[in-house]
Specification:
This protein has 360 residues and is α/β, with parallel strands linked by helices. It has two domains: 227 residues, Type I PLP-dependent aspartate aminotransferase-like (Major domain) (Aspartate Aminotransferase, domain 2); 120 residues, Alpha-Beta Complex (Aspartate Aminotransferase, domain 1), CATH 3.90.1150. Helices cover 38% and strands 15% of the residues. The chain is built from eleven helices and 14 strands. A hairpin with a 2-residue loop joins strand 10 and strand 11. The structure holds pyridoxal-5'-phosphate. Pyridoxal-5'-phosphate (PLP) binds next to helix 3 and helix 4. The site of pyridoxal-5'-phosphate has 14 residues, from helix 3 and helix 4.
Length: 360
């Protein structure tokens, strides 16, 4: 069986080393020493000024919306994971969808201005598959209309654009460290901001709003993460490069082996680095994509329609809306298995089967 993904696990001994410290200190959560060490190491690794380690990528988005005091309408993409939209609704705001660019599959900045109203407070865009959004165009629009910008960088760990971390763009960037992500802490998330005042507010918000043991500075939530999760994050840090290299090799092999397949892949930002988080293919038709998905599954090879369906016409708490490009791409896109333990032989097998299905 070949699953769509398998979490990377460091050698058990490495994780156990951290566990013995937890037992000794009996400090299990509430921003313990491992959580702080993880924050410091990730700040170094990602070359960002400030970051917070939080419970998950969804809480990170909700905290970002709260900390920026966003109200009313937030412009966002319908081609993302449900958490991008649900966080907006959860925080009492209204998602206003803007269609994606058909090449990058990220929000189309040329369509943003038409969606801005007096009620618009921010743009929340996703770096889909880790591919950086057109951050300069979005920054220009945000400045002109006095809007805040949040980037959902759940997929974008380690990506740089114009020579710096993609997380350094916008007012706040978030990331997911969920087990299925290329770098993970089992469950976990990151919030990145360049603004120290915002960082301070976010730190209060993460801890119920406490500013001291008996005082409160903010309306807060429990966004903390545990020492066990931090330990997994720390144990995974020494393997980031090996994971990256293996994913790059497998991606390049897919590219080579799938040369005859009539599909498109998202066009990557010209000045962005890649993290090989996913291997998405856009087929010529939904019919062919479904046939490939079905026949691969018959050989116990599991793929995923990611993202399908469009967030704009599926969620029971929103009025359905159609978007030409999102609806079309969401129907035809399929992600192939990609993970550290995937073998060259398995990539060759998947590629051979896909070509056979197409050519039959
Ligand atoms: C684009 C996007 N945003 C947000 C999230 C939510 O992250 P988490 O699962 O850590 O809550 C995900 C998770 O897969 C995601 O893909």
């Amino acid at each position: 069986m070949i699953p769509i993904t398998k979490p990377f696990l460091p050698p058990q001994e490495d994780y156990k080393k951290y566990l013995s410290g937890i037992w000794k200190r009996q400090w299990l959560t509430n921003m313990g020493p491992l959580a702080s060490e993880l924050e410091m190491k990730l700040k170094d690794h990602l070359h960002v000024k400030h970051l917070l380690f939080v419970t998950n990528g969804t809480i990170a988005l909700q905290m970002a919306i709260k900390a920026l005091d966003l109200k009313s309408e937030i412009i966002t993409t319908p081609f993302s994971f449900v958490a991008t939209t649900s966080s907006i609704v959860w925080e009492g705001c209204k998602p206003v969808f803007v269609d994606i660019d058909k090449e990058s599959l990220n929000i189309d900045p040329t369509k943003i201005e038409a969606a801005i109203t007096d009620e618009t407070s921010a743009i929340l865009a996703t770096h889909v598959y880790g591919n950086p959004c057109d951050v300069l165009a979005i920054e220009k629009i945000a400045k002109k209309h006095n809007l805040k910008v949040i980037y959902d960088g759940a997929h974008a760990f380690g990506v740089e654009v114009y020579g710096k971390s993609v997380f350094e763009y916008g007012d706040i960037s978030t990331c997911s460290l969920h087990a299925t992500k290329l770098y993970h802490s089992i469950e976990g998330g990151l919030i990145v901001t360049k603004d120290p005042a915002l960082l301070k507010r976010l730190a209060y918000i993460r801890n119920f709003g406490f500013s001291g043991t008996e005082s409160f500075a903010e309306l807060g939530i429990n966004g903390k993460n545990s020492e066990y999760h931090a330990a997994m994050g720390l144990a995974n840090i020494p393997h980031i490069e090996a994971v990256h290299n293996k994913r790059r090799e497998l991606t390049e092999l897919y590219n080579l082996k799938l040369k005859g397949l009539k599909v498109k892949t998202p066009s990557w930002h010209n000045d962005g680095t890649k993290n090989y988080a996913y291997y998405p293919l856009v087929f010529e038709s939904e019919e062919l994509m479904l046939e490939c998905m079905k026949r691969l599954a018959a050989s116990e090879i599991f793929t995923r329609r990611y993202f399908y369906p469009s967030l704009a016409n599926t969620l029971p708490y929103l009025d359905p809306q159609n978007f030409e490009i999102t609806d079309d791409i969401a129907k035809r896109v399929l992600c192939l298995p990609l993970y550290f333990d995937l073998t060259v032989e398995e990539v060759e097998l998947i590629s051979r089967l896909l070509l056979r299905i197409q050519n039959n």
